[in-house]
Design brief:
Keywords: Signal. This protein has 13 helices and twelve strands. By secondary structure, the chain is of the alpha/beta class. The chain has two domains: 201 residues, D-Maltodextrin-Binding Protein, domain 2 (3-Layer(aba) Sandwich); 99 residues, Periplasmic binding protein-like II (D-Maltodextrin-Binding Protein, domain 2, 3-Layer(aba) Sandwich), CATH 3.40.190. Strands 4-3-5-12-6 form a five-stranded mixed beta sheet, sandwiched between helices. The chain has a five-stranded mixed beta sheet with strand order 9-8-10-7-11, covered by helices on one side.
Amino acid sequence: MKTKKIGLFLLAFLLVLATAACGSKNAQTTGQGTPSGETSSAGGGEPKQLKDVKVVLDWTPNTNHTGLYVAKEKGYYEEEGLNVDIVQPGAGGAEAMVASGKVPFGVSVQENVTQARTQGVPLVSIAAVIQHNTSGFAAPVDRNIKRPKDFEGKTYGGWGSPVEKAVIDSIMDIDKADVSKLKIVNMGEADYFTAVKRDIDFAWIFYGWTGIEAELRKEPLDMLYVKDFSDKLDYYTPVLVTNEKQIKEDPELVKAFMRATSKGYQFAIEHPEDAANVLIKAVPELDKDLVMASQKWLSPKYQDDAKRWGEQKEQVWKGYSDWMYEHKLLDKPLDVENAFTNDFLPQQ
């Protein structure tokens, strides 16, 4: 949820395709994780063998991920016979690790799944972590950016991604603004708060993390949520993903993982302060005040107006993929039906 790169992973994906056949054979044993063979004697019966499972994050731990940490801390995964290890992404990103079968589950975003699938990479989204897009363009209030037309004469800090450039062009066009009057620079790994004091006027952030941090810093922002400019930009970010091979060969593992994960996010929805404390305990280097404030803001947004946490709608996948195709971000339209599934969400 921290400001992050929203870009193309196609090179990594194509490399993954070349190695997927051999990589998938080691799906449960590749990399560093908890030792296999852990047991549990919960309930007083004979020790139960737990299945080692990894889930890879999309970024450093934050409140987008709280439900995963809750499910681990509260024993929901163990109840399903799983010993879950939450790991950081490698150089190729979470998508590459999941697509290759190196890990069975990961955190991604709808645009990356869309780009991957149109290139033949077998990622499948199995849950929307947050029901509506909470990202947008943020600027300190002294820059007086209230609408896209106010981007004129300003400097945007980004990462050179075709997606972000297309979104900026699109919303400026809606506001009849001249995109040639906007300067775009690469802010690299610079912290948002450092960058806006140094050489940029605004950047793309997730409000639930960077925006909340700005509130705590008493540095007010003007926030332009991208979803407010087009229904097609109200896409799912982040999502939980697996790959087609995992679904085909071990659907029961996917069901078990999602039963426990759903319980974790439901707990976070109902008990944001307790859930925040779970995340703080698991990742003590995080700012406690930021985690608590972010969790209180985000917990109601996990499910929002959906009938259950994680629910995904075909119209959301089609709307955003159509938008990407219209803006030449995809080589071909997305086969929406196979890009996501609600089949592994627990029935209410």
